[in-house]
């Protein structure tokens, strides 16, 4: 083997090893997640694939999460609106957290939605809503979501 061929094989082997390590790292912390339905439109589109950052740490209001529903054994994608210990109420198409109106520029307001609550969110649970409220099956129907059922956050949308 000549020196240049040997050098080429070392560089090629290093590149392949680096690609394998990056691939393993990516799928340790992230996965691809396909959205089914229009309950999160226009933010997330039906059929499109997004990146899900795995885990439940650092969750905050307005994060879009994927979670498992034991009610029908399906995965859902919704937006966190209420956090543990908060009181949530929907009246006149507006969301109120502890009596304060929540600013929501992402919501589709194509139809009136029924008033809801007030309810107090239990510890270790969150209240989720779809951005397209008129067609979304969310915490108004399925109840609050245990944090342990959350698979992760949708990123890069």
Automatic annotation (TrEMBL):
Q: PROSITE patterns attached here?
A: SPASE_I_2, SPASE_I_3
Its topology with respect to the membrane?
Single-pass type II membrane protein
Task: Give me the segments passing through the membrane.
Answer: 9-30
Quote the InterPro entries the UniProt record gives: LexA/Signal_pep-like_sf (IPR036286), Pept_S26A_signal_pept_1 (IPR000223), Pept_S26A_signal_pept_1_CS (IPR019758), Pept_S26A_signal_pept_1_Lys-AS (IPR019757), Peptidase_S26 (IPR019533)
Peptidase S26 domain location, by residue? 8-154
Q: What is its EC number?
A: 3.4.21.89
Q: Which Pfam families match?
A: Peptidase_S26 (PF10502)
Q: Which domain of life is it from?
A: Bacteria
Catalyzed reactions per annotation: Cleavage of hydrophobic, N-terminal signal or leader sequences from secreted and periplasmic proteins
Which keywords does this chain's UniProt record carry? Hydrolase, Membrane, Protease, Transmembrane, Transmembrane helix
| Location of the protein in the cell | Cell membrane; Membrane
Q: Which family does it belong to?
A: Belongs to the peptidase S26 family.
Q: Which NCBIfam families match?
A: sigpep_I_bact
What is the name listed in the Swiss-Prot or TrEMBL entry for this protein?
A: Signal peptidase I
Its source organism is Laceyella sediminis
